[in-house]
């Protein structure tokens, strides 16, 4: 190869690397994996020996490069999403990951709570404090708190409910001090903050964080969960069904391969999630028989914001039809809708 050829080949490699690795301000979302829930959940002395299986479905997401952007522009069920439509205001990669893992932790809590409640078994809920999701730049907590911190005490009072925290912080005015005890990496640390105006709030004062309640649940038999690399709340429904399937003697699957999605709320409601069309595509590739989809209510406010919005169930059913799938898509508003359907389902074969 001559010098000109070597130079041309070198330029080609540089361009290819740029197309492959240069990060754009977009995410690419696409169908992810479909996973047997029993691989992630186990109950001590539970009953995992069933003929069928429950599956959770995922959406794969990664930051776009010029190459993946071009591929996503022409591929079915791939979407190009702005970073600002995925992340909250001022949220960086670490904070986004913390928020997604907290959503998964909450889905595990709710699934366990609902499953043991429906099974009529004992459980004990402990309020742990407030979980820090995001720290606003130049707010009172900037430089003091981190995403993933857990505020367990405020002004020498244990945080045993959200109301306790609100009652303490509401009377505070600009310049007041507030003393926190924070759990970080398993250790308790003391932090004293000075109340400031919340950045971007136009006259509101506080410590400048977004947070979520943190609770744990103790059960007998014990539940073991291993989902360290999976984020988001959408596996809640399938977690709940798998837990119930292991808690009771009956085989809820009736021999079917059953997938689905939906956030599980504490009252048993199945909440709306994103990317359901990609999850149907993923489940179809896995050869699933039945797919549970949230039959969420579309409110007037939602239609005003997005006139073309439809329920998760409608999107899932349309997707199954579009890809000529044999999956039977079942609408569910609550965990009881799913259980009633399974109760009436005739065993496979």
Describe the model.
With 349 residues, the chain is α+β, with helices and mostly antiparallel strands. It folds into two domains: 33-86 and 224-344, Ribosomal Protein S5, domain 2 (2-Layer Sandwich); 126-216, Roll (Pdz3 Domain), CATH 2.30.42.10. Helices cover 33% and strands 29% of the residues. It has ten helices and 18 strands. The protein has helices spanning 3-21, 66-74, 83-86, 93-119, 162-169, 236-247, 276-285, 300-305, 312-322, 335-344; strands at 26-36, 41-43, 53-63, 79-82, 123-135, 150-154, 157-158, 177-184, 187-194, 196-197, 205-206, 209-219, 223-225, 257-260, 263-264, 270-271, 290-294, 328-332. The strands form five sheets. The protein has a six-stranded mixed sheet with strand order 4-1-3-14-17-18, sandwiched between helices. Helix 4 (93-119) packs parallel to helix 6 and helix 7 crosses helix 9. The termini are far apart. GO terms for molecular function: ATP binding; ATP-dependent peptidase activity; serine-type endopeptidase activity.
